[in-house]
């Protein structure tokens, strides 16, 4: 039997080419995900720095100023400190639940970023059920908090976990009803379609003007979902000794704060997408015609402008959330539950019925 060496070399080169194509395919799949994670990380660091600076200004005191210029590296220094601190495990706690709790809280929120459009072509996954994927995935975060409280073998921690679950259930329903109203108005549950539906009439096409009651309910519910003041009952220091975080230390303790800021950022992004036109500039063409001409000629420049507009609107709501935290006092648990079940739920349900009726009459 005669073996043709040229055929063997051709087969080997073909197999190497196919393997290289597979490697390149994997790399191109990971690049957008890693880019998004890096951007989210930088966004969280900026939020932590902004919160300290804004709170210092509201309380008339000096904020961080030594770690880096203007204290911009303070959040990074705190994260490094927590990374090298010892992780202490409760002696009689459930180690598996204790370790899994912080991870579930962070990962469930990170998945929500995959359906957020920063520009028309800049989205990780344009799904037809984008907004409801966010609601479904973010609902898993309280499960992680409840696991953390139960696995700590601490009554204070367990009570904090129960409060987190009760608060999340109370405000998740009004939040979902507001999102459903927006989906009915836009005739789609895709985040890209919702933004595009608001771009027809510029500034006046925002869902804010068509859903003012839903916007207020959504804003209050999102603050409660993020466990921000005046809704930070699950970790109230004076009442529960930090709640479900009591037995945590080191990086696991830091993951809870990362999850809180990740949730705050994703909620502000969804407020921008659902009610404030997303990446659209929303100003008439006659005011800045040169900018529109440059956007049409350069796709890269247009994408950068869209990202800047999205982030500018997002950080406006982050400022409102941060200022609210350092302005309003904390609610009692009975006031918190009454607000969710007796006020926000009926209002959001009535808003949904009005939206449905208007859509039926317009057919």
Please tell me about this protein's structure.
This protein is mainly α and 363 residues long. Helix 1 packs parallel to helix 13. The model has no long low-confidence stretch (mean pLDDT 83). Helices cover 70% and strands 0% of the residues.
- Tally the beta strands: 0
Assembly form of the protein: single chain
Q: Uncertain spans, ≥5 residues at pLDDT below 50? A: none
- The helix/strand order is HHHHHHHHHHHHHH
Q: Could you give the distance between the termini?
A: 77 Å
Please state the overall shape, judged from the principal axes of the Cα atoms.
globular
Q: What average pLDDT do the residues reach?
A: 83
User: Can you tell me the number of structural domains?
Assistant: 1
């Amino acid at each position: 039997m005669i073996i043709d060496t040229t055929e063997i070399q051709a087969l080997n080169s073909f197999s190497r080419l196919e393997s290289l194509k597979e490697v390149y395919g994997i790399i191109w799949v990971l690049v957008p995900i890693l880019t998004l994670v890096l951007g989210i990380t930088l966004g969280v660091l900026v939020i932590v720095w902004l919160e300290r600076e804004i709170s210092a200004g509201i309380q008339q005191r000096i904020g961080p100023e030594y770690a880096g210029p203007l204290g911009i590296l303070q959040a990074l220094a705190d994260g490094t400190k927590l990374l090298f601190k010892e992780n202490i495990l409760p002696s009689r706690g459930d180690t598996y639940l204790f370790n899994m709790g912080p991870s579930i809280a962070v990962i469930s929120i990170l998945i929500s970023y995959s359906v957020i459009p920063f520009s028309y072509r800049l989205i990780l996954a344009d799904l037809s059920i984008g907004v409801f994927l966010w609601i479904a995935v973010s609902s898993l975060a309280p499960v992680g908090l409840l696991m953390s409280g139960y696995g700590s073998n601490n009554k204070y921690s367990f009570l904090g976990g129960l409060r987190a679950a009760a608060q999340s259930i109370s405000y998740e329903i009004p939040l979902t009803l507001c999102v459903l109203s927006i989906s009915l108005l836009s005739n789609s549950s895709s985040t890209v379609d919702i933004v595009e539906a608001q771009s027809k009439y510029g500034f006046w096409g925002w869902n804010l003007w068509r859903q003012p009651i839903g916007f207020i309910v959504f804003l209050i519910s999102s603050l409660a979902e993020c466990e921000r003041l005046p809704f930070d009952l699950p970790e109230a220091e004076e009442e529960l000794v930090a709640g479900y975080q009591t037995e945590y230390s080191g990086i696991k303790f830091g993951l809870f704060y990362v999850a809180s800021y990740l949730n705050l950022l994703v909620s502000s992004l969804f407020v921008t997408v659902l009610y404030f036109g997303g990446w659209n500039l929303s100003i008439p063409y006659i005011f800045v015609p040169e900018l529109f001409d440059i956007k049409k000629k350069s796709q890269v420049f247009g994408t950068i402008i869209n990202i800047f507009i999205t982030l500018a609107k997002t950080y406006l709501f982050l400022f409102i959330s941060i200022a609210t935290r350092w302005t309003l006092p904390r609610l009692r648990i009975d006031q918190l539950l009454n607000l969710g079940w007796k006020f926000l739920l009926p209002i959001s349900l009535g808003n949904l019925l009005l939206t449905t009726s208007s859509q039926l009459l317009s057919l």
